[in-house]
Structure formats: C-alpha cells, structure tokens
Amino acid sequence: MAEETLIHADEVAKHNTRDSCWVILYGQVWDVTDFLPEHPGGANIILKLAGKDATEEYDPVHPPGTLEENLAPSKRLGPIDPKSLPEPVKPAQNIGPEPDESRPAPLSSLLNLDEIEAAATKKISRKGWAYYYSAADDYASKHLNNTVYRSILLRPRVFIDCTRCDQSTTFLGNKLELPIYVSPAAMARLAHPDGEWGIAQACKSFGTMQIISNNASMTPEQIVKDAGPDQIFGWQLYVQTERKKSEDYLARINKLDAIKFICLTLDAPVPGKREEDERSKYINEDHDSVIKDAGGSKLEGGGGIGQSLFFGTDPSLTWKETLPWLKKHTNKPIILKGLQTHEDAYIAAQHAPQIKGIILSNHGGRALDTAPPSVHTLLEIRKYCPEVFSKIDVVIDGGIKRGTDVVKALCLGAKAVGIGRGALFGLGAGGIEGVERVLEILRDETATCMRLLGVERVDQLGMQHVNTRAAERDIYDGPGNLGQKAGEGEGSYGNYGLWLKSKM
Amino acid sequence: MAEETLIHADEVAKHNTRDSCWVILYGQVWDVTDFLPEHPGGANIILKLAGKDATEEYDPVHPPGTLEENLAPSKRLGPIDPKSLPEPVKPAQNIGPEPDESRPAPLSSLLNLDEIEAAATKKISRKGWAYYYSAADDYASKHLNNTVYRSILLRPRVFIDCTRCDQSTTFLGNKLELPIYVSPAAMARLAHPDGEWGIAQACKSFGTMQIISNNASMTPEQIVKDAGPDQIFGWQLYVQTERKKSEDYLARINKLDAIKFICLTLDAPVPGKREEDERSKYINEDHDSVIKDAGGSKLEGGGGIGQSLFFGTDPSLTWKETLPWLKKHTNKPIILKGLQTHEDAYIAAQHAPQIKGIILSNHGGRALDTAPPSVHTLLEIRKYCPEVFSKIDVVIDGGIKRGTDVVKALCLGAKAVGIGRGALFGLGAGGIEGVERVLEILRDETATCMRLLGVERVDQLGMQHVNTRAAERDIYDGPGNLGQKAGEGEGSYGNYGLWLKSKM
Amino acid sequence: MAEETLIHADEVAKHNTRDSCWVILYGQVWDVTDFLPEHPGGANIILKLAGKDATEEYDPVHPPGTLEENLAPSKRLGPIDPKSLPEPVKPAQNIGPEPDESRPAPLSSLLNLDEIEAAATKKISRKGWAYYYSAADDYASKHLNNTVYRSILLRPRVFIDCTRCDQSTTFLGNKLELPIYVSPAAMARLAHPDGEWGIAQACKSFGTMQIISNNASMTPEQIVKDAGPDQIFGWQLYVQTERKKSEDYLARINKLDAIKFICLTLDAPVPGKREEDERSKYINEDHDSVIKDAGGSKLEGGGGIGQSLFFGTDPSLTWKETLPWLKKHTNKPIILKGLQTHEDAYIAAQHAPQIKGIILSNHGGRALDTAPPSVHTLLEIRKYCPEVFSKIDVVIDGGIKRGTDVVKALCLGAKAVGIGRGALFGLGAGGIEGVERVLEILRDETATCMRLLGVERVDQLGMQHVNTRAAERDIYDGPGNLGQKAGEGEGSYGNYGLWLKSKM
Amino acid sequence: MAEETLIHADEVAKHNTRDSCWVILYGQVWDVTDFLPEHPGGANIILKLAGKDATEEYDPVHPPGTLEENLAPSKRLGPIDPKSLPEPVKPAQNIGPEPDESRPAPLSSLLNLDEIEAAATKKISRKGWAYYYSAADDYASKHLNNTVYRSILLRPRVFIDCTRCDQSTTFLGNKLELPIYVSPAAMARLAHPDGEWGIAQACKSFGTMQIISNNASMTPEQIVKDAGPDQIFGWQLYVQTERKKSEDYLARINKLDAIKFICLTLDAPVPGKREEDERSKYINEDHDSVIKDAGGSKLEGGGGIGQSLFFGTDPSLTWKETLPWLKKHTNKPIILKGLQTHEDAYIAAQHAPQIKGIILSNHGGRALDTAPPSVHTLLEIRKYCPEVFSKIDVVIDGGIKRGTDVVKALCLGAKAVGIGRGALFGLGAGGIEGVERVLEILRDETATCMRLLGVERVDQLGMQHVNTRAAERDIYDGPGNLGQKAGEGEGSYGNYGLWLKSKM
C-alpha cells in the first residue's frame, strides 16, 4: 500500500460548513458532508467540530467499528499532517451551570420556566417584578399551587405505540392546538413594550387561547388587531360599582369577533394582601419629603399596583343579580373564574347553559393565602359531584411549571390549563419570542409526558395515569366529620345539600 | 392648528400639591387637580409625581385612551419645553427589601407581625427580648402553635356580596369590636415605657379587650386609669402560696369596675424551662467576680426573668378547693386559662355557671414543650365533647400571626383569639402606636379574609370554611387505641368518662 | 422635713455582700440585707447589683409601690450623692448566645444535653468524638431515635396539686431514685481520665443505676470500688467465641455484689458500619508510609474503634443454647439488651422467669441503620402483645435528650430509660461533675414535665398523657397486610404466631 | 530486684515490622511480635505504632490488667530510656472529614457510594458527569428512587445464629454470587478508558451479572472477551425504526454465548428531558460563532448526549407486534425492562414463558419525572397481583446506595437489584478497581444487614423483615377511588381488569 499524502490542518479547517464538512478522527481526515443528515446525534453536534480534530469528542461515545459501518472507505481522504495540528488545550473542568454570565443567555438555552423567570427578573423593573411575583401573605397558596403537582405521581404504561401525539383540546367548542392557554394577567407592558399584543402574537403561533385581562395595559382592540383567522380570545370582566362603565365596556367587547367569551372573575372581590407589591412603593423614593411637599395626607400602609387596580371593583356580586345583568349586556358565552370549592362548582353547573364553563383558580395565590390549590378543587369535584364535568367545561390555572403538571391536570378532568406568570415572565425575558419559548417548552414537555404515558390524545388521559394519594389525603372531607350537624343529603352531593341551598 | 407655546419645567414644578397638581405625560402638561379624588389608584400615587414628568410611571400601566377618557381636553395645558427637562436618571434595579436600613422604617411600612417583631428586636434590650421571645426547651410547641394554622386550608366561597364586614364578637356578654384581644403578658415596660397602660390605650382605639397580667410592670390601677367608658379588662390571677397576698390583691381588683372578670391561670403551676431567658442572665456581666465578691452561694443553673416571677406561686390548686376559695373572694365572673385537653375543657364546662369561660392555651409554648397547640384542643373538643361550646365561652391564644389565623380559630369555635408576644413586640416597635399598628394589621387581614370567604359576620364562620384534615390526623385519639383498658362510656364523652371521674 | 445628708457612692460600694447589702433605687440608698431571702427573684439577682445603682434593672420589672410594700421606711438610708456616681455605660445590645467564647463556660451555664455535647466535642480527642458520635451508615436510626420523641405530643392536665414529685422507679426489684440510668457505653476514658468510675460516682449522687460495658476502659472492680451501699450496677456481656474467656469473666463478676444482674447484648452480633469512626483512623497520620514501613498487608477499608471491639465476639448465639449456658455460669438475674421487634419481646417474655427484663434498643443507631427506634418497639408491644409488660421489666434507650423524652417513654410503658452518649459527653465536658450536670438537667426537666402533666409518681404516667398518633401511623403493621400468607393466630399475638414458632 | 538497663528509643524504632514488632507502653518496652495475629483490634493498629511509644493510644481504650493477661512476662524487654524519647507533639484537634484534600484519597478510604460519586465527579469530564448525573426535569423521581428506601424500616431479629451469610441468588436460572448486578448503562468510556469491559472485569471478580447497554461505548465482543467461564451477561435492545439494523445486531449477539438473555427496554420510547445533560453542550464553547461559521440552522434547545442516543429508536413497539418479531430473531430468553405499574407487570406475566423476567425501573429517573420508584411498583404487584412473582423473575433498579437498600428490595420480592450510576461512578473513580470497590462496599453492607436481621440466605428475606407503612400509604390505590367508573373485577386483579384488557 502506497504511502498516503499528509493533509494539512489548514486545509481541513476550510471545510467547516454544511456544504463541505470534514473532520479528523484517529489521525485520518473524513468527509462527512453526506453523512450529516443521518447522524443519530444530529448534524449540529458534528458541525460544531467541522474542520477540526473530533477524536477526543468522538472516541468515548462510539464503540469501535462505528466509522466503518457508517462511512464508505472513499470518504476517508487521508492522514492528517500531525505537525500541522495546534497544541491541545485542556478545557478547565467545572461542575454546575454556565460560569460566564456577562452575556445574556439565548432564549433557546433557557430550558424551563424557572430559568425563564430568572432571566426576566434580571431584565424587568423592580415594580413590575414585585407585581408579577407577589402573592398573598406568606405565599402559602402560591407555593402549594406548585408543590401539589409534585406530590402527584405519574403512571407510565409501556409497550404502546407512541409515535403520534395530538395535544389538541376544545374549550366552549373552540379548538385549541395546545391544552395550555394564557390566563388573564394584568399590566403586561411592565414586562416588555410588546405587552398583551405580544402575548397574542405568541398564542397565534401555537394555536392557543388568551384571556385578556380587564386591567390590560393595552386596549382589547390593540391586543386582537393582528389575530389569526381562528385565534381564540376571552375577555375578563371585573364588574365596576359604577355599572355603566362595565356596560359600556361590554358593548365595546361585543363588537370584537375574536373575543369568544366573557370571563367573569370572582376570586378577588376585594384585593388580597400582596406585601412584595406593597413594599415596592417604598423603594427608590424619598417618601417623607415627597408627601410633605405635596401637602397631602399621610401615606397609608399598603397600596402597590395590585390594590390600585381594585379601585371601583364591585364586591357585591351575587348569583341571583349579577348573572342576569351580565346576560343582558352580552351575547357572548359566559364563564366564571375563581371557583375554589366543589360547592361553587356544583352551583355553577346548575346554572348551565347560562354558564358554559368555569376556571378553577385561587388567583395565583394572590387573593386569599392558604386557599386551596385548584388541584384540590378538581379532586373535590371528582369526589363529591363528578357530574359537573359533563355539564360545563372545566379548566384550571395556578402553579403550572412543567409539562407533567399540564398532563396531571388533564388526567384529573381539566380540559386545559392556564399560565399567568409564565407568560408575563416569558414576555419579560424576550418579548414575543420569550412567550413563544415558554409555550414551546411546555408543549414539548407535555408531548414527552404523554408519549411516555403511552397516550396519544388528550381525551385518553385519565385517573389511571396518576397516583394522587398524597393529595387526596389532604382534600376537604366535609363539615360533618367533626361532629357538626349537617343537612340531609341529596344525590351524589351528600350532606352538603342543605347548606348549599341556603347559600344560593 | 396654531403652534402652541412650550411650558417650562420650572413652571410645572411649582404645581405639586393637592391644590394645584400638574403632571407631564407624553410631552404634554396636564392639570389633574380635579381628577385627584377620582383616580382608581388613589391620589397619593399621582401626588408623588406632581410637578414632574410622569410618563415612565404612567405608560406601562395604562392602556391608550385612558387619558382622553378621564380628562377633558381643556385640562391639557400645552406641550412641555423638552430642553427644560432634567436628564433622566435610571434608578438602579434591585430585588428584595429596602436596601437603606440606616433610618428606622415608619410603622406604616411594617406590613406584618414578623416585621413588627424584627423592628422591636432591634430596639429593646437583650433581656427583654429574651423574656418575650423565649419558649420551653426546643420551641416545639411555640413553633407548632404557628404552623398548625398554616396546615389548615381556607375554603373561599364566591358570588356572595361581601360589601359589609362586621368583626364584632362577645365574651362573657361583653361586646368586642374585634375578635382579637390582648393576652396577659408580663413585664411590658421591658419593651417600652408606655408599658401595659400603653397596650390599654391601643385596645381602647380598637374597642377590644386586654387581660392584665398578674406580673404586670404597672399596677392595675395605672393600667386602667385612662380606660374608655366601655373598655373591657380582665385580670389574671396566679394564686400565691401565701393566700393572704392573693386575697388582698383580689380585694383591690374588686374595686376596679373596668375589670370585668378574673382569669385564673392554670397552665403554669411551676415554671417551664426557657433557656433563652435563663441564658440572658449570663450576658454582659462578669459573673464569677460578682458572685465571689458577694460572698454568696454558687449560682444555680436556670433563673431568668421567667423563673423569678414564679416565686411564691402555689402549685397545689385543685378543682375542689381553689374554686370555692376564689368565689369567696371575688364577685366578678371567673374564667380559666391554660386548658390543653378536651377532658379539662369538659370538666370546666361541668362547672358552669361557676366558670363562665375558658382560654385554651399552652402558655405560648412557654410552659411544657411538645404540649399541643390550642387548635388541637379546639378540634378535640369538637370531636369528643362539642357541648362545651354551648355551655361556656371558649377563646384561644398562641401562634396568631395573620388574619387568616384569626379566622381559622373562629371557624373552629373560638369566640375570639388572644395575642401576647404580638402586643409586646408592637409596644417595643413603637409604644402605643406600635400596638395599634399590630391591631390594625390583624384587623385588616381579618376583614380581607372574611370578605374573600364570602362571610359578613363572625357567627357565620364555621367548619365549612376550613379544611382541617392535616391537623385532624394528628389530634389525640384516646388512650384505648393501643389496647389499654378504658373506662365505660357516657354520652358523647365516650370511654374517657371513668378516667375523668377518677381525676376530678 | 430636714434636708438629708447625701451618701457617697464609694460608701454604698462597700456594702456588696450577703452580710450587708445596699442598693441605690431612684436616687435613694436602701439597705436590703434582711430582704435578701424573701426576694421573689432570689437573692443572687440582688447580690449581683449590691453596692450599685440598680434602678435600670429594677424599674421595668416592678410595678410602682413594690418597694414600699416590701421594705420598712427605716431601710431607706438616704439620698445618693449624684455627683459621686460613675457615668453610665450603655451595654452594647446583641441578640444571640454569649459572644465571648474564649473562656470555657461553667457547667451550670450548659442548659441542655446539646450544649453538653458541644462543650465535650471541643475538649475530647477526634478519635474519641468519632467513636461516641458515630452511628451506622447515614445516621437514619440515630436521628429517628430522637425525632420520634418530638413527634409525640404531651397532654398536660390542669388544676391538679403538683407540689410533690417522686421520680423513683424500680428495676428487677431494685429501687432507683431516678427513672434515668446509664447504658453500657464503652471506652469512657477516651472522654476523661475519670472514666467509667467517674460515671459510677455521678450515679451514686443521683441514686441511679449504671450498666458496665463489656468493653469498659476500666476493670469492673475499679468501677464499683467506691460504690454506695445501695448502688446498683449491671454488667454487660458480649459472649466470646472462646467461651472460656466469657466464663472466666462471669466468675469474676459473680464475686462483685454491687453488680445485680447480667445484661446479655444481642443487638450487635456483628459490628455495624460506623463511617465516622472508621474515618478517624485516616486522620492525622501519614498512612502510606507508616504501613509500608511496617511491611504489612494493605489496610482494609473499615476498622475504627467500633470494629476492633468486636474481635472475638460470638455471632452464633441462640435462645436454645446460649441461655442455658449463661444460666450455668451466673447466679445473677439475666436481662436481654437490643430487642427491636415485638416478636422478640414476646419470646423473651415467654422465657420469664429465666429472663427478668429486656432493654429495647437499636444500639444507639450504631448497629443497623434504619432499624426502628425503641419507641416503635414499645408501641408494637402495646399493640400486639401488651402482656409482656406484666411478665418482665421493660426499659429502653436511644435518643433521650430531654426530660419530656424520659416522661414519654415512661407513659408508653418503660420502667426507666438509659442514656449512653449523654453520659459520655457529660464526662467529656467535665468528668464526674459533667455527668452529674447531665443527670441534674434530665432530673429537673423530668420533674418539670411530670408536674405540668399533673402527675406525682412515675406509675401514674400512662397513655392518656401522650398523643402518639404520628408515631403510631408508622409502626409495623404485620407481614400480612400486603397479601402475604400469614400463620394462624393465637391470642393477642394474632397471625404472627406460626412464624414466631418457626423461628424459636 | 536489680536495676534494669534502659533501652534507647533508637533501638526500639528498628523493630517496626511484622517480623519484629516492639512497642513502648507505660515506660516499658514490649515485644508484641507473636501477639500481632491475636490482637482483637487487628495487627495493623499495632503495626502503625510499631517501634514507638504507644501509651497515649493504648491507655484510654484498655482496662488495667490487659497487658498482663495477654503477654508473658518475658515479653517485657525492659524500661525505655526516657531521655531518648522525642518531645511529644500534640496533634491539632479537628472535627470533620480529612482536611488535606490535595492527594486523591485511596479507594479503600472511600466508604460509601456517595464518596465514590464525589471522587468520580472530580475526575471525569463535565460532559460525562452531566450525562451520568442528569435525570428528567426536576430530579423528583431520581430523588424518590433513593428516599423511598430511607422510608422503609428494617426489623432486626435477635438471638439467631448469624455466623454464615450466603448472598447468592438466581436470575433466569443462572446463579449470581451477589444479589447486585450492573444495569445497562451507556457510554462508560466517558468515565474511564476501561469502559464497559472494565465493568465486566469487576463483575467477574464478584461473580455477578452485567447487562450490556445497547449504547455501550465498546462492542459487545470487546466487553465479553475476557469473561470468566460462568460469567453472565445480558444484552439490552433498543429496537430501531430501521428494523434491519436491530436484526443484524441480534444476529451478532446470538453468536455470543456469554450473553444469556435479551433485555428489551421499554421505559424510554422517546427521550426524557435531562437538562443537566442538555446544558453541558453550552459549556466551554463559543456557540454563536461556531454555529454561524458552520452556516447552519440555529441550534434547537435540548440535545445532550441523552437525546443523541435516541436517534433512530422506534417508538411504536407493542405487545402484539414486537414480541413475535423479537422471538423470531433470537433464541435467547427475553426479559422486559422499564415496567412501572402493576398492570404492565401483570400483562408481562401473562406472556410467560415467552417472557422470562422483568426489570422494574423508571430508567434511573431519567425518562419521566415523577414516575414512581420501582419500590412502589413492587408494592403494587404485591398488593394487586402477587402471582406475578411466581410466574416470572422480578428484579429492580434505581436509587440503590446502601446494602440496606439491597436487602429491602429483596424482602419485597425482587430476586436482585441493579446499579447503574454506581458502576459508572466507580469506573470514574478508579477504573476496574473502582467498580470493584463499589461492589465490595455493597456486598459488605448487604452481609452486615442480613446478619443483623438474623438471616442467612436471600430466600429467607421477607415482608416480616421490613416495615413499609410510610411507602404503602403513597402507592397507587386504583382509579376507582374517586368516583370514576371502573371495569368489573376478575381474580385478585380487581376492577382494573377491563381497563387492562382494553389496553392489551
């Protein structure tokens, strides 16, 4: 065998693109251009080493014979000239996350919602952060919203074809490509100038729904103006004491076809106590002097953004009076947001078809601290009045951080789950693209989870896929279990019947 | 359209009061004086920006059109002269609490009882702090007093008119404006010269009750001297071995009309072990030399303020002998403090009407460590002898930090809750005004909680508003569940009857 | 009223002893010599201020009128000369434990067993510390030994005369003044030269029992040589493979009258894995060179003090063969140590009166990690075979840190509790006096606990004084609960009968 | 008695080997050469002090008389010359692990699997570490795999002869000397050049089994080439979409006699999300420039080693189609890996004898986060379909860190347990010897545990040796417990029958 000509490293270095990709392996130069699309590890992992000696990366992860099995002998171009290679530089070993934090990480390097939140926290104003992050009192409900999902175990089934995965679901008859929508979340422009319109753009890309906050920092008209033809919006209503204002607003909403339903919010008739939000007003200002100069009364304790937004909200809403009024001022379907007990879910279902759906929510832990997570409410409904699921559409929000959380909620009977802070922090981390990244992460995690459970469609998910024993132990067990007298039972509603009636 | 005259920033700056309030928005000067009282976010948030460019603050939280909707065109005074504006200074972003800690925070900026305690800890002496903060042994009961509330979940009901909120309750027939009173807590002047008299002043402002400690650092006469006409006091009695002393004291108390009842304390017949308190005597003194100079016996281990106060207290009290003696020396109603089992609550109720009420209390975790929190005792009573609630007034103390804690205790059957350390730390943080701030915080939190539960009056709160499963799992289950022989049952009291009798 | 002569501070300063004690209060000099024994807070608290201005200390803790009530007018000696007083120096405020750590703290300032351990840890060698502190594997059992007590709640009864408190108990008919004894704990001289003899001296002072370790660092004869006339000892036997050695030792023990029983240890037939102990041999030595110089084989992993002590121990002991052999070689009563299941407790009770008592123990968590704490075994016995308590004396050890722990074990049926590490760390902290301080702390804490429970004698403690629900949830529930076939039941022993028989 | 000649320390120092070993004790020189093999603490502890004054080490751990009992008077060579001794140097006292970390610790000083992992983490590349360490999402399943063992308590029986301990077990009729085997773990050469062949060498030394990963970094032929005559291997199959590839590979495996079975992996039909692994690609590279130079598409999020390995894996496997295909292409027994529910274990057992065994596994927590630990699946099988254990061999992997974990799994019904990361980190810590150290640690810990339970053979371990109440509380309780309609029951399989059938 004739001696082969040595190839110089500079020559190899030129072939570092998809169009011509050479690598050095065990002292030989190989042309892997045609192999790029077939590489089990993807093309990029090779492209990163294109034009270089890849032996150190290649060797420990490929058994001998791999090269020969995958490349024709003709692809071996010849031996490298060893003198032409640069001295190897050992990379420093370090365990843990990326040490260089001077450059902002690309959105694609943010791997989960916690990392999105961390990135946004660095970018947005303290006031905006405090408003988004804050929750009532001691954050017990906000924390529980999340940890209750961790306490539920999944039950993967094996030997099932999981090639296909269809995440589509419906809400009020509208099709959503994802079982993940954006909850009404106020003041999006505190995160990014794209604001609620930006969230709408991201939702369009993923074929999902957005419920516009009554306190949005943009007008509904602005938010929906670039909507896709099938894009779905809801509009959140906080009824004002001055009813005329709400009626005028409803008239305006009635004209917007993209808005498919009205979402009446019930979980915050008065503002919760959000200390981080209240505290932000004390930061970065010389309060004493300002107020004295203004000649004003002394500043009361409290009063962050959260409380300002409640000004004018009517705390006197009731089943009997508010629903008929609302029905009179809109022809769109009505849903209720903020139900936190099976009793209220049961009453809402009794009002079908006047009410088409409900959102189980504790307002992201922002209203009443130690209120139950909506997973509890789902489990309560399932235990005490499962007929609710067949009468109205039930969705939930609060605490969603992972695709596995989404899937667990679906297993328990929700038709979709909403994200609030997730969308706002996504917006803060990167505007439209940040929200898209959030939806992309959750979509991919949800798909992975459904596949590993052996499930192809959302409607196949059920109680057999989850082990909820830890959560079940803690759900409400009725007022009668400690000796209190209870009303007489009726149907599956048991002994809460009388008490319920007296409240309606 | 004619060109408008530019307005100089110095001119705008003059209009920075309630009487004349101008702000710059999007390059235009607006007169918002008349709008101040209508602003949903309150007048102050505008006054802080009066005379300045408010665009950066205004823009991200208002949708377009808001200005036009709310202000007449005549309120637009003209464009600002852009050259007259100062260079913008970006405030540094920082997450977390107020960085400048050199000035004491105003009381209104202290948002919860933990912040009150932190502020007081900085101000009061180490000895005082040690006495207030300390609890028995390893603080297990003190800790549990608080965490047991966190384990109880609330059940908010929606679509209920929550415009009104009436927190008033009664105790022994006396009306309290708040279901929150001040427990007997000794040595208030260690916190502030206002002492127990100061606490009384704060209670007057809020229309609530104070129980005066037997070991107060002021005389009962001093404490009640500025009481309001309807102000309610109780007086705590530790019976002395030298009974004459107690009888003389009772005679003195009998003359004070403001004192409505005698509170016989039973949970600390001997002092608990409070190490932080004991330890404080070793601080800041050169113990060896002092003691030697004094020619005295060696210092025994133990002996903080807590133990000193017990000197002379009689540990031999009994149902049979002490109650008749007490009855003979007072004509005021008698309540018992420090019951920690349903058995003792049951026995107390058997002594009605001689006994009018009980305070479930483990002495703030200061007597016996790992004694149950009074929430356990409430649940025990509810389970084993609920008739107690109808025979005597039951109130509780220990661990209250939040309005939600107050509401949970009321749901479980308490007529009111007492705060001890909360009042003392309030006093330490700011004298009378500090105690008022504590009561204000708890009142406001309690109101928020009642409203969000959909409840208007204290007597509407019930077991249907709380999920106590986690706590119920841990309450006492009877001595018979592990095979021990139990006495025969009687009524709802079950198989504890015989054992109870043998103890009475 | 004539002007009074001013008294110079130097004159006051001379009166700073029990024999003549003056203090300055509110500008007046008082002679409080006669009042010293009557002071509710004790004489020392005054003696520390003798000869000085005590106003700052006195004022905030005494209501007005206290002076006049307690001291005759003649005790007021006159006004102090204000110019003669030194400038007041404000002590720096600091929260937390004693800042000056340069001097070792006096034993009386060590308030609990954790502080004793911390003090000893500073004084003893690393090797000794590692041997005492270490436990098997991951310390799970050592940790659980302690935390299981924290999970048990006490149930204090009130309005019971608790003047008297008698802690005496019996073991094998011997009277102990305390229900707390010293477990067999090896190698006491690693802590202090007083060694096991020192422990014996401390036990004598408190009238309690010591079980001498088979691996004591002193001979039994040395240990018992200064015993009191009624002092009780046991002797722990690890049976040697070379039986003759054990027989000779037993013969030696038979001659010592102070030793009242033989304690056959069963919980460590082979050594547990105690990594901290094994690791200590790697510290402070240049192992490679040493071993090479020694020309020896390579050091095996493992091998701290713990493993050395096992050399020669016989792992083949059985109920059938070992008991008769032992009976032949001693005329003293026999007890068994290290039972960890109700099954073995039941079998032991079947061997009464050959066996007189048992010690429930997991060897301080030093043998098998994740073995149950002896509280579990007590609860198992109570549930499955409570007759054991009436046939043999049951005591327990492991995890005792507080008097409340002692009382809880007694409530569950133990006749006494043993401390091992507590005694050794006491010895390390201060020799005999250190062990005495440990016993003093536990005795005082136990008395406080009994009093606050309303109990006068050890035999009155019972299941009604404890709430063990959290612990009960976790005790063994039988092998049959997951579908495994179980033997037929017999008596209260249920379905473990057959399996038990097959093992005997 | 004549005065004895003093012996110089230099003379003593020469006798520091096994052949001649002198030590100084209490001022006397002793010849302990003959005593070395008899020393209860082992020879090494003496050899370390050979030629030196051993008094300080000897004294506190030996009672007086020990010397005289064990050594003949003739072994006393005479008094040491005190002037010849060096000045004593007190070693500094320090608590905690070895302070000098500059030299790598010898393998024998690594006492448990955590220390092995820590040592390996320092040695291997970040990429390798990230691949081994990583698990899905939030590490919940990886964490639970381990902690579930901690929640199970052991029940040691006493007074049982535990001289002998036989750890052998069988799998598919093959004898294993240990109940511990090596799971299929990919890419071993990332840890050490010895790679999977090195693991095989270590398994040979301990007589146990290795299952070769489909993604091994060496060929199966290389791995088995130095196998012992009775050495057992399995081969893991990931079926490729391009079936021909899998068929060719199976043909190759069929020729290797050392491979006794095919292990079809089912728990990862699609890759889990392993963020630490994905993140490692962002480290130590200038990603932007590299990718741009390569002219390629933008890097997608995700894509560590884990995802690369999945390229080409077929996600469409089913009971009906895949098993017959596999049967056609191999004549070796087939087992299934990755079952996580009792339902799938039940179905697998229905396929016996086509299927001979199953591995309960959640893929080391690397596939679906919050999937149950395999201990849960074992408990489910035991509760709902215990007949599975008699039809097929059940082994498990995941979370094994201690011998007690091994024993617990055996008690619950597993025939053996697999370790994955343990073997890889052992390899990283020291190649073949590192893997041997891992197996040695687990073998020794397992033996200690079996002995302390009073058990001689693996088949004697049963449910009576474990208390699993905490774990049982959390296992799956069926889909019907919250009101969902369930199919009709059949046999011990209860109401899961119909649902099961519909899935098959």
UniProtKB/TrEMBL annotation, chains A, B, C, D:
Q: What reaction gets catalysed by this protein?
A: (S)-lactate + 2 Fe(III)-[cytochrome c] = 2 Fe(II)-[cytochrome c] + pyruvate + 2 H(+)
Report the EC code(s) recorded for this entry: 1.1.2.3
Organism of derivation: Knufia fluminis
User: One short Pfam family name for this protein?
Assistant: FMN_dh
Q: Where are the transmembrane segments?
A: none
- Classify the main location: mitochondrion
Q: Which domain of life is it from?
A: Eukaryota
> Assembly state and interactors?
Homotetramer.
InterPro entries linked to this entry: Aldolase_TIM, Cyt_B5-like_heme/steroid-bd, Cyt_B5-like_heme/steroid_sf, Cyt_B5_heme-BS, FMN-dep_DH, FMN_HAD
Gene3D superfamilies recorded for this chain?
Aldolase class I, Cytochrome b5-like heme/steroid binding domain
To which protein family does this belong?
A: In the C-terminal section; belongs to the FMN-dependent alpha-hydroxy acid dehydrogenase family.
Give the matching SUPFAM superfamilies.
Cytochrome b5-like heme/steroid binding domain, FMN-linked oxidoreductases
Residues of the region (Disordered) are 57-107
Protein name per its UniProtKB record: L-lactate dehydrogenase (cytochrome)
Listed cofactors = FMN; heme b
